Amino acid sequence: MHMDQSSDLLSMGRLQAGDRSALADLYDRHSPVMYGVALRILQNRTEAEDVLQESWMQAWKQRGSFDPARGNVPAWLVTIARTRALDRRRRQASRNRAETQTQVDPVSPAPTPDETTAHGKLKDRLVQALAALEPKQRQVLEIAYFEGLSQSEIAARLGAPLGSVKFWARQGLLQLRELVPRDEW
Amino acid sequence: MSERPDEFRHLCALYALGSLDEAEAARFEAHLRTGCSACEAEIAQCFEGTYVLAKAVASPPDPALRARVLQDIANAADSPARSTSDAPVRPRHVALPPDPGRRDRRIVRFPAIVATLGWAAAIAAAILGAVEQRVVRQLESEMTALRVQQTQLESQLLEERRWATTMASPAARTAVFAPTGAGGSNLSGWALYDPSTQRAIVVLENLQLEPGHDFELWAIGPRGPRSLGVIQVEFGGRAVVRLTRVVVPADLAAFAVSYEAAGGSPNPTAPAGPVVMVGNL
């Protein structure tokens, strides 16, 4: 088992037993990804920080619901942050629609530039992996993941058949996983 | 391997992305409840794909936020606890101080002695209670960690069984690596690829690595090479690589190994260094 995965599971076990000190370890390991996702979705630092703060509180309160047999710790934490950020974005969008017809930021083909070089090498690899996807695959994944649109909404946005959206999503995700195996996370 | 309709196979990714329309999500979840292991496995793989997507936009938050988050949780954890299990222990069996209005000395003095003894017992009980609580917490923590480890070991065992199935699969295709001449002449290896599970095992020998370099494994299909990642070389120049979801079965024609600068080729669809070994399937 990968060292980080073992550390995550042990920290999660401690957390589930009520040991708050485990939280600091998990925070240090996973906050950059949680915050990065929230920032990408909301395009606003203050909002993304709020989401990060709320997400950790939710993770603490719902720590008992984490089941190691059904998912890994990073995915569980990122799902919490992403869901909260998307909810916030939808609330903002409905407010904005009431005022203007302003569109949310268009999806860019390249990810947001990193602000540190600490994980530069891995980051390069991830960016390369994204760049290696077919443009439609990348577009579908980014719209689905960072904008939270449904398959029908994606198909309408891209003017593509639903079947193609399903195909691109599947090929894209499996290819990403192949290009950056879990051992390299 | 369990059969599943194609329609569900194509829904796993959108399910992992949370992008299925409501009706389709309900239909897919009903299918999952039938225990389709193929879909469950694919959803897990797709979740890993979404995590790659998330990791690509990672960005460190303001360092000051860390203290705020931890403090918030400490406050939240403390406040409900005080009203329940962590509340100061009040000795329930100790008599309350006697009513000063009562004049019967026996009644007044006897409870006073009981109260004195009671308080001592209460303090002892409180200390024991605190120690007991800490031990219980520690044991709970260890038990949870062990439970987590057990689940992981079971999962590893299942994975090993899958690999054993791959090795024994009658549909498996094999490849023997031959040196191209661009690297050492004693380079060797073999690969076994099972199209039914899309899993492959690659074993390479005599990989001599110089500092600042890596060997990189490639899958060669009709559309050209695709990186399968940098190879972790063990002591003695041996490497064992296990691969899952190796492209589309009909596409895979060969495996190849290239010799790259550390970290591998910057282009995941073309080696930058010389190809030193090829194994045709």
Level of helix content of chain B?
Answer: 40-55%
Given helix and strand content, the structural type of chain B is: alpha+beta
Beta content of chain B: 15-25%
Structural class of chain A: mainly alpha
- What is the radius of gyration of chain B computed over CA atoms, rounded to a whole number of angstroms? 32 Å
Order of helices and strands of chain B: HHHHHHEEEEEEEE
Chain pair sharing the greatest interface: A-B, 90 and 67 residues
Mean pLDDT of chain B: 76
Strand order of the largest sheet of chain B: 5-4-7-8-1-2-3-6
Q: Distance between the terminal alpha carbons of chain A, to the nearest Å?
A: 13 Å
Largest sheet of chain B: 8 strands, antiparallel
- Total strands of chain B: the figure is 8
- How many individual β-strands of chain A? 0
The total of helices of chain A stands at 8
Rg over CA atoms of chain A:
17 Å
Total helix count of chain B? 6
How much β-strand is present in the residues of chain A? under 5%
Averaged pLDDT of chain A, please?
82
**Percent helix of chain A:** over 70%
Which overall shape of chain A is indicated by the principal axes computed on the Cα atoms?
Answer: globular
Fold and architecture overview:
The complex is a heterodimer of chains A (185) and B (281). Chain A is globular and about 50 Å long. Chain A contains eight helices and no strands. By secondary structure, chain A is mainly α. The model of chain A is unreliable at 100-118 (pLDDT under 50). In chain A, α2 crosses α3. Chain A starts with a helix and ends in a 6-residue tail after the last helix. The relative contact order of chain A is 0.10. Chain B has 281 residues and is an alpha+beta fold. Chain B folds into two domains: 6-78 and 91-143, no CATH class; 173-280, Immunoglobulin-like (Sandwich), CATH 2.60.40. Chain B contains six helices and eight strands, in the order ααααααββββββββ. Chain B has an eight-stranded antiparallel β-sheet, with helices on one face. In chain B, a hairpin with a 4-residue loop joins β2 and β3 (199-205). The two termini of chain B are 23 Å apart. The interface between A and B is large, with 90 and 67 residues.
